[in-house]
Amino acid sequence: MFAAVDLGSNSFRLHIGQHxxxxxxxxxxARDPIRLAAGLDAQGNLTPAAIQSAINCLxxxxxxxxxxxxxxxxxxxxxxxRIAKNAGDLLPAAEAAIGYPIEVxxxxxxxxxxxxxxxxxxxxxxERRLVLDIGGGSTEVILGRGHEIVKVESFSIGxxxxxxxxxxxxxxxxxxxxxxxxxxxSLFEDAAPPYQPQHWRTAYGSSGTMRAISDAIHKNGLGxxxxxxxxxxxxxxxxxxxxQVSLLxxxxxxxxxxxxxxxxxxxxxxxxxxxxxxxxxxxxxxxxMGVMWDMHLRSTKRDRREQSVHQIASxxxxxxxxxxxxxxxxxxxxVQLKPASDTYxxxxxxxxxxxxxxxxxxxxxxxxxxxxxIENADMAGFTTREQRTMSKLILSQKGxxxxxxxxxxxxxxxxxxxxxxxxxxxxxxxxxLDYADVRLRMKSRIELEIRQDLMNLHxxxxxxxxxxxxxxxxxxxxxxxxxxx
Length: 485
Description:
The chain is of the alpha/beta class. The protein has helices spanning 48-66, 79-83, 87-98, 107-119, 159-166, 174-188, 208-219, 229-242, 255-275, 287-299, 304-315, 320-336, 345-353, 366-376, 384-396, 411-428, 452-457, 460-474, and strands spanning 2-7, 12-20, 23-32, 72-77, 102-104, 128-134, 139-145, 148-155, 202-205, 280-282, 438-442, 446-451, 479-484. The strands form 3 sheets. Strands 3-2-1-4-5 form a 5-stranded mixed sheet, sandwiched between helices. Strands 8-7-6-9-10 form a 5-stranded mixed sheet, sandwiched between helices. It is elongated and about 90 Å long. This is Ppx/GppA family phosphatase. Residues 305-456 form the Ppx/GppA phosphatase C-terminal domain.
């Protein structure tokens, strides 16, 4: 069993699913329409009330999770928590409430997971498709073929802000709808060419907004339920004739969702117009299903992050012979340091593979450039937190340690930094060694034992190790080197 928790801008949602052959069956789901995006104040901070509402919801979700024998749980946060200036005030308390770490994912990663959920729910191998997802805070557009993503983009437009901006106090007018649609079109028009119909066969709508609009059209006699411009405009006309969100009577849509549907309708009309979509098919699959498929693939050793690391290394022309030497050496050294958990093990290995990508910019400050590139790149499969961790490790590989010493309160992180710095040092010194030639410990101080003949053969090792001793001393850590016969 897997569980996916989606901290969306409009609703928090939970899916518990079980892998069964070629499908993941949802055995339990929950939704809480807390409208987190509406809790952002004028300064871009979440209000105390919004934070408390989120924490209360996650505490309830924890009770549901505890009732099932779940193998793996992932909690992902999307647009509102991405952009909230005080997200740091929410995350620790939210993690404590639900009992699991929260991954703040990028818009591109959100799009990747949405597409993964859709592609695994459609038994049409190799189909060229367009997937749209209108959320509370952002809209994702993904072009793909079968399980492969060709292009993914995330746009900062969602139902919560669009509804509040163009339909304040719930007033619905023709002029307001015209303005809302034009605003959406202006955001999508520059990105539209790659998403025109010649590039795909079928277009799918994966969000709850799409399904709600389809239900509103069908159950209120405004069309056959298909999402076409004709049917969308019929729904728009009904909304305008009613004139007020509170007076709308839309069978199949819960009252608290109606206001969001109006904003989503304007965005959806803009999308169909700019991308020239004739028919959009709503589908019961998306982010949460994608998160569960991603967990399943990781459990079967098919981790998308591995591919991302090698793509980044290739893109920036990293010397893979050097990268692999450092990666293998760092793995051996880190094991000797006996970390308390495997929190950094894989990220340390990946950081070693990418440690020289900054060379494409500069041979002297490559560690700084590489760190910036990794923190800000769109790396499929990785969360913002994971990329920040790898960025810090890559930054730490050379130079003074004060820039990352605040992370040393976590001893495992300090051990990861030590292992990477020594692996890079030994690689630069061109030391060919059996890992049994080196003994490394880190407790109250760092102790390194290395064969004397290796130091004689590679005199620069002595120079670099002296530099390391000085660097660690500057952050208050004693470093002792012993040469053995």
